[in-house]
Amino acid sequence: MQEIINVSLSHRSNHLISQFYNCLEPLLYDADHENDVFLNQSVDKVNKTVSYTPRALLWDAKLGNGSLGTYQYVSENDHVDSLKREDDKNVLNTAQTVQTHDRIRKSPYQLALDQGNAQLPKLNDDIAQYWSDYSKLIYDPSSFNLLQDWYHDSEHQSNAPNFQNLHQVYFDKYEVGLEQFKERYSNEFFDNNLHLQLEKCDNLQGFNIVTEVDDAWGGFAASLLMELKDELPKVSYFTYAWNKDDVVSLKEPIHSTKTKFQALCNKIRATISLVQESDLFFPIYADSKKSFWQSTGETVLLFDSINSIFHGSRKHSSTDINVRKMSHLTDVLTLGESKRNIVSKLNVDHYTSYSFYERLPYYKNSKGQSSFTFTECEIDRVCHDKATKFHFNTYPWTNSDTVPESHRVCTEAILGVTEKSRDVFKTWEDLVSRYFRYDSDREELKDNLATISQEYEHGFYDDEDSGLDM
């Protein structure tokens, strides 16, 4: 068994992980399918039942879990007003209830799930505001981690968490996230929840880190990943980074707003750190015009396809279904060049790209209007007509009713390391040189961006200045 733990940081990331496990849920009814990679199996010998909990560590701000209580499926007494026994009357009479916010009620979908209804309501933006509104699998209490001083904004979901629910100071700076994890959460996280998850693994092969990079979650993830690698240096680390549109992708003036400029600064710093610490880095586009439920329900086709490589059917031999380790995909996509690890081509069924880098303009001195492809692989979920190291045959895509109806077909995914990453990092290098005039890390950022961009150069370039005009 080669277990993989999903570490999800931010509300958007938790939506994606929920969609992923919802798509795995139908496979639990397939006796021939290998489920132990992403799910922990518990056997009740007395009742002769088997249950599964996700191998996951979810980070969110307070209120981000919605109606889901940490011990909801363990204890019935999460709340004072749920005590019903006669000998608890004194507790009820003397207890003081401090209400900090209105209780979040369960969604109609989650109520129907809890009641075992065969007919589930159709999801929409209104009843799927929280990832827990439609999560089908039951998480172990050790999966949940909360930012103690920061609150999720339910009215403005795309906003970063705010301090003490006052809507004045936001979790929106790379440095804040970096410091918060290191100073406040590191010791407790490693000693408790991470340790409990690791105890459930026989032979851990790696982690999927899913995070935002436009706000403080990027710094939080960078700090967590650096310490995680120090603790477990011999396993694989794949980072899936959510990128929102910025002034570069939108072709707006750099200082169009202070908020957009700050988000770009966060993105550059977080990306550098995460690329340096990851075996593979996937820059995913986060569509802010769509709800978290809808956008992650679309992106899960890519995330599920990549991770379908690492588990499959017990009844098929490796020649039929290529079940590989994370390290094998890393070797295929980097061809031994470990520093060329940004997977900038992220296509599903050829025509749908989930890559944020594909949305950015070409650098001024790029050669033509196409990017050289260093390496590419195909994840085949239907035909299984090839058997090479650049072609992975996996099990058919399993739909979930929580995925939007417009995205319930997936036949293949194409992953590639391309020259496009050079355009991105050269553009960022110019921006840092021009606009980070008084930043103490300006020269370090420029050096890092130049070093990374060189890894994606192919052939010769015109050395003239880019003339970037923003």
From TrEMBL:
Q: Domain of life, per the record?
A: Eukaryota
Name the PANTHER family on file: MITOCHONDRIAL DISTRIBUTION REGULATOR MISATO, PROTEIN MISATO HOMOLOG 1
What does this protein's UniProt record list under function? Involved in the partitioning of the mitochondrial organelle and mitochondrial DNA (mtDNA) inheritance.
Question: Where would you find this protein in the cell?
Answer: Mitochondrion
The record's annotation in InterPro entries points to: DML1/Misato, DML1/Misato_tubulin, Misato_II_tubulin-like, Tubulin/FtsZ_GTPase_sf
Q: Chief subcellular site?
A: mitochondrion
* Keyword flag Mitochondrion: yes
Q: What is this protein called?
A: Protein DML1
Name the family. Answer: Belongs to the misato family.
Q: Where is the Misato Segment II tubulin-like domain?
A: 2-115
Print the keywords alphabetically: Mitochondrion
The record, for Gene3D superfamilies, names:
Tubulin/FtsZ, GTPase domain (3.40.50.1440)
